[in-house]
């Protein structure tokens, strides 16, 4: 394009200004005596001036002010601030009168006298700009500045920001037209109020309230003369006059404002001089309001909260839109975090681990019956330095910071217990469970048909009686018992219950795999949050609640609640089944159980240890009826290695176990969190849950076989003498040593009771090897695979059913 062509298409600058002045006059913004003569000099009629600018914008469409959102703990304490612009809008009455006078004095001293355009100031600027060949001086009124700031605030793309700030006459004319409309519709005082809430005062402080709090630690209503003058001087060049980085320049600019206020007789000479003598700011009073979770006292918890908010489609169609909304909408986000319990969890982790350890420790606390996540703690702090991490080891990998769990070992046995009790298996049910068994090639039924492992010879990591009951097996964490039990009742009911209790793979976010060793914790990766919330369901007597971390959201501006997912609780287990699980896991905490070392207090406690293959992770998960917790110690640096010989709590581990390694963290966290709360007890399960549908057996030890048989026959039982040799017992020679079923287990009505006779050796008797009959139950509802027995092996009505 030739220069002549470009010049022909570009409007003459003077022409544009004169046309606008003419229209302004017609609009009533400027006096006819001032504007129309210029239009006449330019050869412009009133009608032509109107036609020339009729397509200029008129009504200013403003966007809501971006203001900071805050995240609170359950008690209302702010734990994080999120913002793009640190702003707290305030009404005019909440701004010091001297601040209003200072900003008007330095930015637009004729603000209350002229209309949208200060003709004198604009003409002066135009003349200087014409002589310089560009836009070197503004001369903008406060109304014009408000319009410009509003257009910038509304811009959402870099292109829109560029257009809103372009140094062109076209943009200036559009702003003037907007300003005319604003002056018609909005009172001067409201324009000034909006301007002061929009203006940038440097150092990420937007609006006079945020600036006053940042630089002086006072609200805008409490600003004094030198403080107001400093802030008023900042708006011209917030970076150049930054009182923190450039205190000398800031003071010089502030003093210009003070002298101008004196020239305008707003303040006296003495007031001006006294104010000039004061320091521009007191660095000790500067208050920095950090933004983002990295600056929070609880960064991992905060990031998990934000990840849940970003997943809420109500806040925008895309993650970017949702993030922008969260950081600009002025929200009060209240969370479930209990600071007292969080402190207890932090202290527990700090007491039993160190940030510099080779391995990590983590613990999560959840409230049963509500799903409220009360606390999360871990050994490695937030950060990018050595010994720090950005991973949250307590949660699933649903966002970048979620680690995604660890294998959780025998803590999965709780779901096998729940499924078995739900199928009618009494807690006294015994299975012959040697230290090692062969399950190679044996079928396990699943929801989708049979599966097997061609080479699987599991063993126990602890020693127990040969024919343990469910309670015995839970106390000693007997692998061979629970594998056989899961084979007998089928994997489908176990995995179904685990799924209903919120268990899924924390890494892939997919369902857990139905594998032969499901009950030993090899079906996927589990997070402490997931496991503690699942165990909380047992504590809540079968009422499952989705983990809840955000409890309410309200608007800072309106105070109105914003809909957010609330507690989602529903029954997944009958109270009787849950009571039965609590009964079994409570015995784990009793003397001789794997959890006995970490038992404390007078409240009923239930729990389960967990150790993975090669000790890559160890767990303890347990609860009272009021609070559940799960702790883990694991190698979090892939590829994971055995914990043995790795540094934990500053020393090399010589042994790693759920009770001895993860258990102390669980104990300290839960004990501290429960401090001051009342003692609680579990509901005792019905006797039929514990022993099945049985009758009590009499105490026969030491009785003659004849007397014992007569007693049993009179009660309707059948009697048979053991055909083997007499057994070691402290009962007198030739008398009854014990029975099978055992006296404490009872027996179904009419069942056969086997009598063992003592040899009088006074030796402690070994455990009887025979599995006793137990009560009838309803056969499993799942369809078994071909060739799998269709009878429950614990039911004496099916004597030929395959038994362990």
UniProtKB/TrEMBL annotation:
Residues 75-262 form the Glycosyl transferase family domain. InterPro entries: Beta-lactam/transpept-like, Glyco_trans_51, Glycosyltr_51/Transpeptidase, Lysozyme-like_dom_sf, PASTA_dom, PBP_transglycosylase, PCN-bd_Tpept. In the C-terminal section; belongs to the transpeptidase family. Coiled coil: none annotated. Residues 765-796 have a biased composition (Pro residues). This is Penicillin-binding protein. GO terms for molecular function: penicillin binding; peptidoglycan glycosyltransferase activity; serine-type D-Ala-D-Ala carboxypeptidase activity. Pfam families: PASTA, Transgly, Transpeptidase. It catalyses: [GlcNAc-(1->4)-Mur2Ac(oyl-L-Ala-gamma-D-Glu-L-Lys-D-Ala-D-Ala)](n)-di-trans,octa-cis-undecaprenyl diphosphate + beta-D-GlcNAc-(1->4)-Mur2Ac(oyl-L-Ala-gamma-D-Glu-L-Lys-D-Ala-D-Ala)-di-trans,octa-cis-undecaprenyl diphosphate = [GlcNAc-(1->4)-Mur2Ac(oyl-L-Ala-gamma-D-Glu-L-Lys-D-Ala-D-Ala)](n+1)-di-trans,octa-cis-undecaprenyl diphosphate + di-trans,octa-cis-undecaprenyl diphosphate + H(+); Preferential cleavage: (Ac)2-L-Lys-D-Ala-|-D-Ala. Also transpeptidation of peptidyl-alanyl moieties that are N-acyl substituents of D-alanine.
